[in-house]
Amino acid sequence: MEIVSNNQWRQFVYRTEVPDSVLENDFDHLSEETTDGFFKYKGMWFHLSDFLTFPAGVHLPWKGYHNLTAFSSVVVRTSDEDSEIYQVGMMLS
Predict the structure, then answer these.
(1) Do residues 13 and 22 make contact, with C-beta atoms less than 8 angstroms apart?
(2) Angular region, 78: left φ>0, alpha ψ -120 to 50, beta rest
(3) Average of pLDDT values for 12-35?
(4) How far apart are CA 89 and CA 92, in angstroms?
(5) How far apart, in whole angstroms, are the C-alpha atoms of residue 20 and residue 27?
(6) Which one of 6, 35, 74, 77 is least enclosed by Cβ atoms within 10 Å?
């Protein structure tokens, strides 16, 4: 398994900054009260609620993953201080 990331911390995007078409098509399951936790990676929009936590016993510095294919996942971690910034990467197997 390989994780590729530039390890740069970035600010999450607020709901008001996400295109309406993306909100309607990709995030219609989220309530309108969900205002933060959005980000764009490699041309795709994500929300923290899209990510699963790693199973017990998996010791990685990343907090969650979102499967893209059978062999790749997007991984994310948030800052420990305020969880308003994140790092993102690609996990390949």
Answers:
(1) no
(2) beta
(3) 95
(4) 10
(5) 10
(6) 6
- Please state the φ and ψ torsions of residue 55, each to the nearest 5 degrees: -65, 155
| pLDDT tens per residue, range 52-91 | 999 999 889 999 999 999 999 999 999 987 778 999 999 9
Residue 88: what are its φ and ψ, rounded to 5°? -135, 150
Under DSSP, the state recorded for 68 is S
Question: Are the C-beta atoms of residues 68 and 88 closer than 8 Å to each other?
Answer: no
Report residue 28 as tokens: 């219609």
CB atoms within 10 A of CB 16: 10
Residues belonging to the chain: 93
The CB-side HSE value for 65 (13 A sphere, CA atoms) comes to 17
